[in-house]
TrEMBL record:
Coiled coil: none
Record Pfam families: Amidohydro_2
Superkingdom of the source species: Bacteria
Gene Ontology CC terms, in alphabetical order: cytoplasm
Organism name: Membranihabitans marinus
A molecular function (GO) term: hydrolase activity
Protein name: Amidohydrolase family protein
Lineage of origin: Bacteria, Pseudomonadati, Bacteroidota, Saprospiria, Saprospirales
Metal-binding found in the keyword field: no
Length: 300
């Protein structure tokens, strides 16, 4: 059978309906197709100031430039290993090298593993002295485990946000593990974040990427009453209404724009939300910059 390209398909379809009254819906769809093709996401986003609160090394600098992202807070993706001091020090050194390569554009986030308490606390000091800001934490230990307490206290002293991965989906964490999806028991659930946030009301916590998979409705509902827990919009998942839902539950001040290197998805889901330009600007830039201001790490 002859394969049709898109143009061929449209011509063919047009021929096949010749002489037949075109269904009303088809003409509407065609009009909206044309309208969409004239929509420029770049043009739309250019009226906002952007700061990426969740970028993963290596950032796509061409895309960041195209979308006008001024700063990217960047960390290493987790390696599924024990994450020894040698490994997390290397990960941080890689971030420091990126910061040198892209000064003021890439800001590294600090990786540690609380199983190595002393080395982790020393590493936070070393990285903070060298200009890294905030944490990039994963699954080795739950955020409300006492092993994390000295680490959280250190980030509080530095006035830095504690940015950590968690998950909320069937098959993750505690009782939900009966549907095993291959995640470690030590992964933090929204309830674990809430526990840590209540224990440390002066701490600032960021739950990684509501757009990164999992039950984002559950996440937003769990954090509703906890003003020191923030979320970012990073991740490639673009479920309709996600941003609107997050604003409804968390308000417009606790949501950060993040890409996790999915630039079109990251920007598009904010632009598509039913929000005012002022609200979008808060998410794109102001909210995260306000958190940075607390430690003097903000953009001028
Ligand atoms: Zn992630």
């Amino acid at each position: 059978m002859k394969r049709l390209d898109r143009r061929g398909f449209i011509t063919n379809a047009a021929t096949s309906v010749a002489g037949i009254v075109l269904p009303r819906r088809a003409s509407v769809n065609r009009a909206s197709y044309i309208a969409q093709s004239e929509y420029s996401i770049i043009e739309q986003v250019r009226k906002f100031q952007l700061l990426d609160a969740y970028c993963t090394a290596d950032p796509k600098m061409d895309d960041a430039k195209k979308f006008g992202i001024e700063q990217m807070f960047t960390g290493k993706p987790m390696i599924w290993s024990k994450w020894t001091p040698d490994e997390f020090i290397q990960a941080n050194d890689d971030m420091l090298a990126l910061m040198k390569k892209y000064p003021n554009q890439v800001i590294g986030q600090i990786s540690i593993n609380p199983h190595y308490q002393k080395e982790s606390l020393e590493e936070i000091d070393r990285c903070a002295d060298l200009g890294m800001v905030g944490s990039r934490l994963y699954y080795q230990v739950k955020i409300n485990d006492p092993l994390y307490f000295p680490i959280i206290e250190k980030f509080i002293d530095l006035n830095m946000i504690i940015f950590m991965h968690g998950e909320a989906q069937i098959g993750v964490g505690g009782y939900r593990m009966k549907y095993d999806v291959g995640r470690p028991f030590t992964i933090s659930t929204p309830e674990d974040f809430v526990d840590a946030a209540v224990r440390y009301p002066e701490g600032m916590f960021q739950f990684a990427h509501i757009g990164g998979g999992g039950d984002w409705e559950y996440m937003c509902k769990a954090f509703r009453e906890h003003p020191n827990i923030y979320v970012d919009t990073g991740g490639s998942n673009n479920a309709g209404g996600m941003i609107d839902f997050a604003v409804e539950y968390l308000g417009e001040d606790r949501i950060f724009f993040g890409t996790d290197n999915s630039y079109y998805q990251g920007v598009g889901k904010i632009l598509a939300a039913d929000l005012t330009d002022r609200q979008k600007q808060k998410i794109f830039f102001d909210n995260y910059n306000r958190v940075l201001t607390k430690g003097g790490y903000n953009m001028d």
